[in-house]
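so i finally got all the pieces together for this one. its two components total, 837 residues if u count the protein bits. some of the lines might not be protein, just check the labels. i wanna see the whole assembly predicted at once instead of chain by chain like last time, that was a mess tbh
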Amino acid sequence: MELFDVKGLNFAYPECTENTLHNVDLTIEKGEFAVLCGSTGSGKSTLLRMLKPELTPLGSVSGDIRFKGESISAIDRRASSASIGYVMQAPEQQIVTDKVWHELAFGPENLGMPREDIARRTAETASFFGIGEWYDRDTHSLSGGQKQLLNLASVLVMDPEVIILDEPTAQLDPIAASDFITAIKRLNQELSMTVIIAEHRLEEIVPVCDRLIVMENGRIIFNAPPSEVIMNMNEDLLRFMPSAARIYRTLGNENEECPLTVRQGRSFIEKNFRTEIRSLPSQKKEFKSDSYALEMKNVRFRYSRDSKDILKDLELKVRQGEIFTIVGGNGCGKTTSLKCASALVKPYSGTIKVFGKKLKEYKNRTLYKDCLAMLPQDVQTVFMCDSVREELKLANADISSLPFDISNLLDKHPYDLSGGEQQLAALARVLAANPKILLMDEPTKGLDALYKHKICKILHQLKDSGVTIVIVTHDIEFAAECSDRCGMFFDGHIVSVGTPDEFFAENSFYTTAVSRMTRGIYDKIVTVSQAEEICRLNGRKDGLK
Amino acid sequence: MISFSSLNPAVITVWFLSVSAIAMFCNHPVITILTLTGAVLFYLIRNKGGHLRSHLFFLVLFLILSIANPIVSHNGATVLFVMNNNPVTLESLLYGINSSAMIVGVLYLLRSFTQIMTSEKLLYVTGRLSPKLSMIMSMAIRFVPLFSKQGQKVNDTQKVLGLYKDDNFIDDIKGHIRVFSIVSTWGLENGIITADSMEARGYGTGRRTQMTRFGFTFSDGTVLAASLVLTALCAAAVAAGKISFNFYPRLISSEFGFMGIVGSAAYALLVFMPLLIETEVKLRWNYLMSKD
């Protein structure tokens, strides 16, 4: 049965000459799992909002949207708010009330359901999502992943027929994001819930979806099963796809099935490629200097006297002019170590030196002038003004000296920018202080594949101009691609350090998809481009080019 | 019977309002003594003693208020001594002690009350009066910690970015004002998303119901009925002038009579009711445990 039927939909925002959506045709069947992807600004959010009457933006619309055969504007508000569920990006801001149980009850309350029904529904939903344990908690005390799960649950408690998700994992760390995606997969498979999701974390979601819909400039350019779409898409869009599919696109041929998961990718390589050459010729990297930009020695820190140590004998040495990445799970102290290094909090024992000088010798906040800067995880906290232009003026920034171009953003309000644009604007503001050492907390949070690539390029440019960069991230693929050395943070200190090739090749769980795919077949292959290179060097078993 | 703090919040509120109303309207020393002992004992039992510092605070408050009255007010017939040409009287001193005992008693009660009434229970009670108000309060309660957390984050970021140029007091204040202003903008901006999220879940599509997690059990009914009856008995006695006390010019208590005695006994029961309930619950628990 068709749930949604969109025909010839055009849409333009008020005072915009160009249409945001062009002639969109789309049908969604009941029980289907559809993934919508495309770069930022391609019209994904607008299309999704057109499918939810309560959130339809103002503007000029032409075309027809039908929900279960009925024109969407004619549906009763109560019915549409219950049967079309919608989850947005921001975990925190979607929550309305102060208690978890009340948040769950909020939707049914609005529908005027009898009290006993609400109690049954909330109990049922809470058990399905495993929320029972934090049913009594205050909503502000939850973690980001829990908040987003709560948002999903409090939509499902209204018993919708379809659930629409607009980049729900963009602000979550990878572990919470994959939990969230697992929950959605379960909904689709166990309850045959219809799911329409816009996402850019596609590694896990593409293998399970029925249909991949790709948008570009307000048009749907692909709408087919994933393997079919991957065969035809261009280089830029391909960056969004799972690693296995990317390798296949460069090296496979049409007779083979397109691999999507790590397991399929592994058997694709095993079946088709010879393995005489085990590893790529190693490139010895020369370091410009042997002096250290940041040294932390035996650092111990705790937030209050009675709490546990967050940092335990932390030892960290970052050479001048390198990009050092710290990876590790949630709440292991990564962010706290950056706070210590930037003198926001004081460790109770140990020494921290920046360019050979102890932190307390930087009197009168000279540390933050032409020396050290930090880009926080929540980049919105960087902005203080009503436009990017004023923002840069406040910081005395010179746009022409930046290694990237943000001139098109200058007159916008910082809060109106997309995640990637905000990151760039914030970076511009931070670089205005001419830092010699730059600390970055989760720089890829909420960015799509293209922006990640862009940030990576910018970081290398900065490095070439002599800036030392310390990154804290969950994003393993990003760490493998852009860093000179990586360190694994666990239980309050760094347990192992190495170049990305060694580091990720040694890890067996905490490593990139490509490394998991090539383990035991090749050595020290960590990124997609390395995998492509080694396969090419070895050649195909069947001798084809 | 279940423990007093797990009764229906509305019942607890009725009890609290009745006790404090009688305590504040009737200044008879008997009532004051009952209020003070009841309130302090209940607080001690609930907090297993409590912090020494908070008791010290109440003691100091009690002493200051007691002494303040005879210094300011010179009514009364029995002069104790003369200070700066002003007489300090026994009646005035006793009046001061009585009033400060009443104030401290009510403050102890209030303390136990705020401990028992979590935000959730308060919302339930206001929700009975006005569902809209309770909804707004629930959103406000959520917003306060959110706002201060964001303020702290912005402050940290701006510090590292050099918003505060040097260790300068005025510069710091200016910086804090800026942070406050941007966090307000942030709050409004986020409000739009919250509004969307509310509308998406059907807010404002018609009459809404209110889910509560508090039932009304037999225990609740009993305690509510007992509170109302006891309050009525005591209030009747006070209204009939059977429990009244004049400090000035001389100390004179009204004739209690039968009604006065019943009224005072009713008040005693009312004040000690939570204590009785807690003790009963504890004893029964111990008894049940000992049977194994």
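Chain A touches chain B through 63 residues (CB under 8 Å).
The two ends of chain A are 45 Å apart (CA to CA).
anyway lmk what u think
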